[in-house]
Amino acid sequence: MDFWMLFSVMILVVMGVTMVFSASAPYALSRFDDSYFFFRNQLKFALIGFVVMIVTSRIDYHIYKGKVALWGIIVSVILLVMVRVPGIGVEENGSWRWIGLGPLQFQPSEIAKIALIVFFADRLSARRIKPTLNLLDLLPYAGIMILFAGLFMIEPHLSCTVISMLVCLVLLLCAGARLAYFVVGLAGMTGIGVAAVSFFPYMKDRVDFFINPYLDASGKGYQIIQSMLAIGSGGLLGRGLGKSMQKFLYLPEPQNDFIFSVLAEELGFVGVVGVLSVFMIFFFRGMKVAMQAGELYGSLLAAGITSLIAIQTFLNMMVVTKLIPSTGVSLPFFSAGGTSLVILMAAVGILLNISRQAGAEKI
């Protein structure tokens, strides 16, 4: 087992739970009259995630091939359709991303992202019989990508669409698709994104207020302005853990997508570099596992999981630092959210199992 990977993940999870408590306490007290509300939930799901990670690290990753991979796609499609069914789907802030079953709520999109990786890794490793994949080879995968992109967008869930499609392109490239096809895929995604901005008014607003948030400084541009204030006030060493000012009902829901802003304010540039360093250790170990896996399936599976977490991490940081428009992407292992944390830790368990079988713990 790759102990560097395990060590880095545990650090990220512990830091994430700590930051959820620090960032959410004022908001939780204001909304629920309980400053520990989000902290308890995140700690509970972190413990569940740890158990799930240990379990998946002990399960031979080859079990996910074949019928399991196919059923993962089928179940994901069904669940993504169910989010729009009245009485089952749960609407929040204009989006239908949750399924509610009594007290239990979960996001099918988080499951679908992993299901796509497993399916692509399985099919690409099973059907690849030549060094490169031509255009006809890629058509079935393009169809799957279009199907899931459509299902994500009817929620609507822009960040999940972007992340999932990028990961799929990475897997196709790793499996032998020509770089030109990868570039064409990126161009196609960009074109669809531009069209979506015109079709969905909320996306156009995000672009407009990304360019100039002061067009509506107390409304739609408010969150990014407060995020920049938080990051800027952190300085070199930060205000100190728990001493953020923006979390006191200035930065909306700071425990979610913009938790990195609170982290930067409290821990400063040094703390941000430290967190990035731990993430980079994880990404490096993940790609090392992918390169040392004994066969193509394990290599693609490891590359897909690592790429998923890496892309999501950097997109989140780019959003909160105003490098790209807001997409609603969470920060892995940090942002409050039970489904995401448990699914990510289950995926890390799969990575650990691949490393166990490949002997990737040797540096």
Summary, kept brief:
This protein has 363 residues and is mainly alpha-helical.
What does this entry look like structurally?
- It is built from 12 helices and 3 strands; from the N terminus they run H-H-H-E-E-E-H-H-H-H-H-H-H-H-H.
- The protein has 363 residues and is mostly helical.
- The chain has one domain.
- The protein has a 3-stranded antiparallel sheet with strand order 1-2-3, with helices on one face.
- Strand 2 and strand 3 form a beta hairpin.
- Helix 6 runs antiparallel to helix 7 and helix 7 packs across helix 8.
- The model has no long low-confidence stretch (mean pLDDT 90).
Outline the fold blueprint.
Blueprint lengths: L2 H30 L4 H22 L8 H16 L6 E4 L2 E7 L2 E3 L1 H20 L7 H19 L4 H17 L4 H21 L1 H11 L10 H13 L24 H34 L3 H25 L17 H21 L5
Antiparallel strand pairs: 1-2, 2-3
Helix pairs in contact: 1-2, 1-10, 2-12, 3-4, 4-6, 4-11, 5-6, 6-7, 6-11, 7-8, 9-10, 10-11, 10-12, 11-12
